[in-house]
Amino acid sequence: MSQQKQCRIWSLSGLSVEDRVLLDSLASLGWAFPAEAECGSMVGLAFVQPKDELRKVMEQLAAHSRMLWIVVCDNNQLSELSRLFSLGIVFDFHHRPVQIELLSATLGHGLGVHKELLQLPEPSTFSHDMTGLYDKARRIAGTDISVVIHGPSGSGKEYLARYIHQHSGRSAAPFVSLNCAGLPANLIQDELFGHEKGAFTGANQAHAGVFEQAKGGTLLLDEIGDLPLELQGNFLQVLQQKSVRRLGSARYVPVDCRIIAASHKKLSDLVSQGGFREDLFYRLNVIHLEVPALAQRRDEVLPLAEYFLEQYAERYGVRKHLSTEARFLLQEYHWPGNIRQLQNVLISAATLSDTSIISGQELNLEHPQTELASPLADQVRLFEQQTILRAVRMNGGCRNKAARQLGISRHTLYRKIRQSD
């Protein structure tokens, strides 16, 4: 069954008549709701009833953390369920009575977001240094060697981890990601190792931890530098024994997943400061990959901007282009938030722009107030030259293709190249 316009249905205590009518309305809009075993979609619609115990709801939805959940509930449940949103377990909420068209749009947006999370820019989009990094990642993808990825927040560490997974022999199995900085210590333990039914008050259902969820696949532990020290020993034991024991269980379950750890903090520095176990560090740090900040990869800014605008066009059917001024500003900006900030800036500008051309002002970038090193004409000329040379390089040195891509004649391109020599 195609994954287009299909979602998984979940309910703790069954569906009300109103909910079944809602599903019929969604079906009339083209949505399908296959059984769990047949459902390839990673978007779910969870119905919460007034009598449901919200702790159970949270446990059940958290146990399927790879799903993008949209919750339908009563208006008076929103405040209590908001914790699910803050923990990243729920993608969005709708309260009864539900507006069908709005819910359908939310489900469609969820599918688009999930598709975007799985898609990677082609390595040809990247600078020379990053292409070399992805070449190295591809070489190690066929092994089960542990990898540590270091780099600033938003620089593309998860993209790199997904690239390793997708080029490995484990690509058909799950890729599971857990942000160790996003959960309290007690929830991290539960997410890592899981629990059995009755392990603690309110544990009415068994819950598989991420080691079990990633069976046969890849487990990314993001921001592992924030993993509490008391849990690092338990984590090391799992790596050594290749098995995990759920809270409340005496049985060990074999672990079969490739471990990738990522952090914006240098783990070697944390070791010297006593914040990270040395034995765990050496266990994980077999291969070390360094992702530089976007400010150090300025050649990537414009290709990535075009990539994000192409994604926007595919999702919303609206194609936007960058003005010369906008391209100049993107290239010169310092990008403290790295690729994630670039993506957000482009999506915001594309959405708010009244025309098909995004102006520099619509990027809403705050540039530091510094004196210009050269007159504006010289800066524009330099930017133009850099853009032309980059287009030639990206087209394998073929100047004819570069001219067509830039929308100028061959004569103009040759003349401008001669001027730059």
In short:
With 421 residues, the chain is an alpha/beta fold. The chain is 45% helix and 14% strand. It is built from 17 helices and 15 strands.
Write the layout of secondary structure elements.
Blueprint lengths: L7 E4 L5 H12 L14 E5 L6 H9 L5 E6 L4 H9 L3 E6 L4 H19 L9 H14 L5 E4 L6 H10 L8 E5 L5 H9 E2 L11 E2 L1 H4 L4 E5 L6 H13 L1 E3 L6 E3 L3 E6 L3 H6 L5 H7 L2 E4 L10 H16 L4 E2 L1 H9 L5 H15 L4 E2 L17 H19 L4 H8 L3 H11 L1
Parallel strand pairs: 1-2, 2-3, 3-4, 5-12, 5-13, 6-9, 9-12, 14-15
Antiparallel strand pairs: 7-8, 10-11
Helix pairs in contact: 5-6, 12-14, 15-16, 16-17
Explain what the structure shows.
The protein has 17 helices and 15 strands. Strand 3 (68-73), helix 3 and strand 4 form a beta-alpha-beta unit. The strands form five sheets. It has a five-stranded parallel beta sheet with strand order 6-9-12-5-13. The chain has a four-stranded parallel beta sheet with strand order 1-2-3-4. The protein has a two-stranded antiparallel ribbon with strand order 7-8. The protein has 421 residues and is α/β, with parallel strands linked by helices. The chain is globular.
State the oligomer.
single chain
Mass-distribution shape: globular
How widely separated are the two ends? 57 Å
Using the coordinates above, name the CATH class of the largest domain.
Answer: Alpha Beta
- Count of individual helical segments: 17
Output the radius of gyration. 25 Å
As residue ranges, the low-confidence spans are: 368-374
Largest sheet: 5 strands, parallel
